[in-house]
Every structure is written in C-alpha cells, then in structure tokens.
Amino acid sequence: MNTYEPVIGLEVHVQLGTRTKAFCGCSTEFGAKPNSHVCPVCLGLPGTLPVLNKTAFNFAIKVGLALNCRVQEYTKFDRKHYYYPDLPKNYQISQYDLPVAKGGFLEIELEGSLIRIGITRVHLEEDAGKLIHKPDASLVDLNRAGIPLLEVVSEPDIHSASEAYEYLSSLKSIIKYLDVSDCDMEKGSLRCDANISIRPKGQTQLGVKTELKNMNSFKGVKDALEFEIQRQGSVLEAGGSIIQETRLWDAQEGKTYIMRTKEEAKDYRYFPEPDLPPYIVTKEQIEESAKSIPELPQQKSLRFQQEYGLLKYDAGILVSDKQDGSYAEECLKNYPGANKKLIVNWLIGPLLSVANTRGKRIWELGVSPAGLIELTGYLDRREISNLTAKTVLTEMIETKKAPSVIIKEKNLLQISDTASLETVVADVLKENADVAQEYRGGKCSALMFLVGQAMKKSNGKANPKLMQELLKRRLADA
User: Among the four 285, 304, 341, 407, which has the fewest Cβ within 10 Å?
Assistant: First the structure.
C-alpha cells in the first residue's frame, strides 16, 4: 500500500451568516417551523425575480482576500440544472466560469513542515432545502432553500487524511475570524465533500477519483479518507480498477458505500443566469474589504510568540478560536512580569480542559481574565496547591465569585507555617514508624506515602513541598 500516493481535493460549503437569504428577504434563522421561512422567490414560483444579497457578496470578497485569492473585477451568476425535490426551481443559482475569487492558497503546518494548498476558486451560490426521509415517505423543508452558501474549492494538493484535517481546521478558523459564518457543522453551516484518487508514487498523472459525501465532522472527513485510501489501494493491488462514483460515509460502520456514478459538470447544463446582471467589483470595493479583514490566526500566533514569548504550539492552541484568542490576550497583557508560563499553562491546561468537558469555548466559561490572573497569583505565591486551585476554578465557574472570596469562605489557604507543620510531621512519623524505617532503609517511595498521610492530617491544606522537605529533614536526623 505504501507504493501509492493519495491525491485529495476538498469542496467546503460555508453557510454565510446573513440575516436574509441570498436572493430574497426571507429569514435565515435556524430551527424555525418547517417551510415557515419561504416566499415566492425562494420557492421558484413563476414571475418572481431574484435580488442579490449585498452582504453575502461582500462576505465572499472578504473570504477570497483572506485566502490570498484574486478577486474578479467582473463576475456573474449561472444556472446549474438538476432535479431534486429540495430544489423547487429545478436549478440552483450558482457561479461557473467567473466566480467571485480564484487562484489563492492556504498554508498549514504539519509535523514541523509548512504545506501550501492551492485554492482553485471561491464562489457564491444558494443552498437547497432539506429532505427528511421516513419509512413510507420523504418530507421536504424549504427553509434552507436560498440561504447563501460560499463554496471554497481546493486544488488537489492534499496528500494525506491528516493534511485534510489540518486544512479544514485552518479554513474554519479563518472564516470564524472573519465573522462571516458560525461554521456550526451540527446546524449544517459547514459541510465538506472530498474528491480522492490514488496513484503510484512518482507518477504525475491523476488516478480515477471518488467523491465522498455525508461527513459530519472533521474527524469524519479524516476517517472516511483513511478508509478510502485503503479501499482503493486494495482494489488496485487485487488487479481491479477504480470507477468514478459518489460514495457515502457510514460513521457507525466505518465504511464508504456507493451512492451513484458521478455526473460530469456538463450534465448540469450551466448557462448565465438571465435574471441577474453581471457584477463589476471596483478596486475601491476590494480595498475596502481588505481593510475590514482582522488579524488572522497565523498572524496572531506569530505575534503571541514574539510579543509574549509563547511556544509555537501553545500560541496555536490559543488563537484557534477568535474569542479565545482575545481572552488569552487580555490575560497575557495584564499578567504581571515577563514570564507568562504559569498563565499560559492554565489557559491551555485546566481552563481548556473544563471548557472541552462542558462543550464550550474558554471565553464562554464566565471566568474573567482578571479572575484567572488572581487565581494563578495565589498559585505563584504558593498560597494554595494546584489541586485546590482547580477546585476554586470550578467554584468560580459555578458561582461567578472571585477567587479571594471562595478561598476565604472555604478557608483554603495553604499552611506554610513551619511550626504548625512540624507538629503534623511528628504525629505522622510516630503513627507510621514502620514506613519511616523503610525509607531509612532505602525505599524512596515510602516518602510519598508519608507526605500523603501528612496532607490528609492537615486536611489538604499543608504546603506539600514544604511538608516533603520537613519530612526528609526529620527522617535524616533520626
């Protein structure tokens, strides 16, 4: 199998976060009663005319620029014909030969290597409705029909499932930074199809491709690609041939299944949309859009490394989400001293862990940057233990109280008074004389047992480092 090289191209559909649909005034609100956000235009009734959503068009320009594309100064819409119950007009308003933007790239980092993946095109189109299949019938909800979609098509520059995963993660992060979509895959705001073929290593000619659909997460895309690479390799090694087809990914079984043989683009019978004029994008419009692009994840990561002395890995985690990046910057900016290691460790450690467990982002936990800085201050001064700090963090999330209030109410400050701890040490050594003797005989692990007993006796409030030092000193003196 190692004699073959995968060649992968991805088609990502992004539902744009506009208040109204692409070509009419219907609401794009998610979760409404079926077929309640429809009108004669998005239902494709005779005599209706589409009107382009200006915000959606500007969003498309913005994404194109962020992906290093060339924005077309002359662009138009086309009709793409096919017949499905969820497309009431029997055609989709899309873009074919003159998309909004094309010829860009996205750089990803994998295992220390920088990989540039070409962006073929970024084009605007309308979404279809949603089919709900039942045992005896299929229902259609047309609320989604006409919602503006942005399709980002990559070049076949991806050569592993891991590269595809990193590309999708980077693309999603950029789009969220631009505030043009929530990229919520559960709501269908971000969907991905993959084209994959394999060829003998060293060969330049592309193999026969298979299109993969029904992948509902980035992990699903990765798993489906890994399966398909193995499947195609096994077929070729057995002397068979790959046929061009569309296959569905079944996450439960971990397999792909044939859906249909692939139609060629000519079957869609594209022709220019007669109800929409061509659009001229001025240089002033492009410049205005360029000015509205914020600092993007890769730029922010590099700045965090240079400005705050962060490691590349840590910076990458903190900037993956726009709001998390802003939250982290507030913490880093206001944390006293040049060494930011403790606050960074808490941002990407306990705080991120709790956020992941609760299905939230860091900024959604309700812990203010000032509160986190205050909490880590207690740790830095060794006034509370790491375990106690995690308990305080949970309490901060639940009650929204300041760390100082929680620590005072629960009497959580560590005992660092040597005289008080000497009494605890004496009691522990007296009660565990046999274990103390084992330590003196060379059994090093016995010390940690004694530390544990001392912490228990102090109700977890003793400074563990100081306790260990006192125990060592008493054991050596005996």
Answer: 341
CB 166 within 8 A of CB 110: yes
* Residue of 177, 128, 117, 182 whose CA lies nearest to 152: 117
Residue 453 has pLDDT above 60, yes or no: yes
Contact 67, 119 (CB under 8 A): yes
Single pTM value for the model: 0.86
Q: Where are the beta strands (DSSP E) in 46-129?
A: 70-71, 74-75, 78-81, 91-94, 101-110, 113-126
Beta-carbon contacts of 448 under 8 Å, excluding residues fewer than 6 positions away, are none
CA-wise closest residue to 246 among 257, 231, 232, 230: 257
Cβ neighbour number for residue 283 with a 10 Å cutoff: 9
pLDDT, residue 415, reads 67
Find out whether 87 and 129 touch, Cβ atoms under 8 Å.
Answer: yes
- DSSP, collapsed to helix, strand or coil, labels residue 93 as strand
Confidence of residue 187 (pLDDT cuts 50, 70, 90): confident
- Percent helix, strand, coil in the chain, to 5, is 40, 20, 35
Q: What angle do CA 44, 50, 55 make, to 5 degrees?
A: 130
Amino acid code (one letter) for 187: K
> Distance between CA 128 and CA 348 in Å, rounded?
40
pLDDT at 166: 96
Mean pLDDT of 54-70: 97
> What gap in Å lies between CA 446 and CA 440, rounded to an integer?
9
User: Where are any strands of DSSP class E within 155-288?
Assistant: 190-200, 210-215, 245-250, 255-261, 271-272, 279-280
Give dist(CA 371, CA 348) in Å, integer.
Answer: 16
240: helix, coil or strand? coil
Please, what is the average pLDDT of the chain? 91
